[in-house]
């Protein structure tokens, strides 16, 4: 039986008609059965600007953005010589965009819920265009398959956490059975939208910025795909971000465990949560470039052939270190519980933690500090100190907590850089520490040199 492949193409792969045709060629060659696409590059940002402008500025200003978005899509439609049927679909979406902007403008109110519907237009427009590109490419290759546009909201059931909705896995699987069962026959190529979903009550949601990868993984799980392919503009995951370190090399394979630890992937290739559905169902993930599909790309899977001590390194900027201390923690129980309950109540995610007898330090994204109530709530239990402008550096590999001399080698390579906090021991696959923001690039370059080059 032929493999069922779910593919995702990002915004740059949808950039213009040429990009779309190139991406369609990749899908055709690979034999994708279900393709989830992002909005054309920049469109999601433009739609957000549209919503904000409609809410708080003049209608003239709003119209300017409307026509910019419209023109960009009309150009692609013209270049692709869109069929009458697809043209009509695009026109309907333009009308919806116009009406939504008008509604927001009259009400002077762009709620997150309204914003989600507005943003969904990006993926809904690009998927109409890409279906056309896919049809043309299938025809060109004399394929017996046909491309069919599929509204992902029929299957991607989420909760009503607008702007960051959570998919309901069990329901997605049941709905995929019902509406996408024929994907197994491989007679059609389904083209659908990344990033968007729908609540039980029929309201459109989005999964959070950059969420198309996640959509594709959820769909791969839902249809029990054999492979998930993520096509982007870089040829896979690199040993580190090539913009920071030009010596970065592509990684041919990485295990699920290492990849999950690589919280912010080398060149930001993957949305961190993307892998969860694939891990759950043990679906191998391929990450490649639609611009250079001959390049090797990276396989992310459960079992890998090589287990290097250090495979990759990443940095996460804009971190703060929050240290909470109180003598009450001495020999006491339940103290961490109380503190973490505060983080939980504020829905704040903690990345790294270290503790001493009377204090605990946690790293957070600096945006969490905008929430003044969080610090106030923490202050009820402990003395709170905040250090800003930090970067978290993670080294990802294997057997990290069982290798003699590793820490020495790491700190010898960056002996001139002050390390503010270290986290080691919880994982075989990750060693991370904090450094000052302005020393982070140098730290990565030095570490890359001693471990990878
Ligand atoms: N179009 C959405 C965004 O720009 C989702 C995605 O591209 O993954 O965030
Ligand atoms: Mg994107």
Automatic annotation (TrEMBL):
SUPFAM superfamilies: ACT-like, Carbamate kinase-like. GO terms for cellular component: cytosol. It is an enzyme of class 2 (transferase). Its EC number is 2.7.2.4. GO terms for molecular function: aspartate kinase activity; ATP binding. It comes from the Bacteria. Residues 3-288 form the Aspartate/glutamate/uridylate kinase domain. Keywords: Amino-acid biosynthesis, ATP-binding, Kinase, Nucleotide-binding, Transferase. The keyword GTP-binding does not apply. Pathway: Amino-acid biosynthesis; L-lysine biosynthesis via DAP pathway; (S)-tetrahydrodipicolinate from L-aspartate: step 1/4; Amino-acid biosynthesis; L-threonine biosynthesis; L-threonine from L-aspartate: step 1/5; Amino-acid biosynthesis; L-methionine biosynthesis via de novo pathway; L-homoserine from L-aspartate: step 1/3. Coiled coil: none annotated. It catalyses: L-aspartate + ATP = 4-phospho-L-aspartate + ADP. It holds the Pfam family ACT_9. Residues 393-451 form the Aspartokinase ACT domain. Belongs to the aspartokinase family. NCBIfam families: asp_kinases, PRK09084.1. This is Aspartokinase.
